[in-house]
Design brief:
about 220 residues; alpha/beta; 4-stranded mixed β-sheet; 6 strands
Length: about 220
């Protein structure tokens, strides 16, 4: 009987479609990823076991560094006009004489840590060069001249009718008087509820929270 020869087929796989898919996925993640903006100072936050997610919008964050300098920043990715409303309010109420370009630069300024007298100089500097400016912090220790009160009032006005979260991010080495001054600025604006930003720690073994979690997960 004549033998039948089975035709040989190439075992090579065309990888072109897979490479295209890989590049499409990579492009998607690059475009969708939101990078964390640079902070004006390095903050080492104390630890806690609460894992509540940090709000990314409609939030005011007050930062206290290790030398008790206070900074003010707003988290609002969805509506950048909030920044315009805040800086316009500050410019008007404090009579700072900011130019349109300086007010527009506030949108790119991650955090303000200067007295009102130095705000014009800060906003006249391009955002990518502001890190070279040594900000002395917003004056808060003098109860009669706590400038943070004005920033919080401007934020409340800008977010009027909307829910606004207040966050305090303090360095583990900052002192209580600075924290008390920040809370006082909130109280003077009739804001009595705020969240503390901390680093996430493991739940201590055999603590009340640990024992509770064991009971719920059984």
């Amino acid at each position: 009987m004549p033998s039948v020869k089975i035709p040989r087929k190439s075992t090579d796989t065309d990888m072109t479609p897979f490479v295209d898919i890989a590049f499409l996925i990579l492009s998607f993640f690059i475009m969708a990823t939101k990078f964390k903006p640079p902070e004006p100072v390095e903050i080492t936050t104390p630890g806690s076991v609460l894992s509540q997610k940090l709000p990314e919008n409609n939030a005011v964050m007050v930062i206290i560094d290790s030398s008790n300098k206070v900074y003010f920043t707003v988290l609002s990715d969805k509506d950048k006009s909030k920044f315009d409303a805040i800086i316009e309010n500050i410019n008007t109420t404090r009579n700072l004489g900011l130019t349109p370009a300086e007010k527009a630069n506030y949108r790119q300024t991650f955090a303000v840590g200067v007295p009102f007298g130095n705000l014009k100089q800060l906003l006249a500097t391009p955002a990518d060069q502001q890190k070279s400016i040594k900000q002395p912090g917003i004056p808060v220790m003098d109860s009669a001249n706590n400038e943070l009160v004005w920033w919080i009032a401007a934020a409340k006005s800008a977010f009027a009718g909307e829910s606004l979260n207040y966050l305090i991010k303090g360095d583990g080495h900052s002192k209580y008087p600075a924290f008390e001054a920040v809370v006082s600025a909130l109280k003077r604006n009739d804001e009595f509820k705020y969240n503390l930003v901390t680093a996430l720690d493991d739940i201590p073994s055999n603590s009340e929270l640990d024992l509770y979690n064991r009971r719920v997960t059984k």
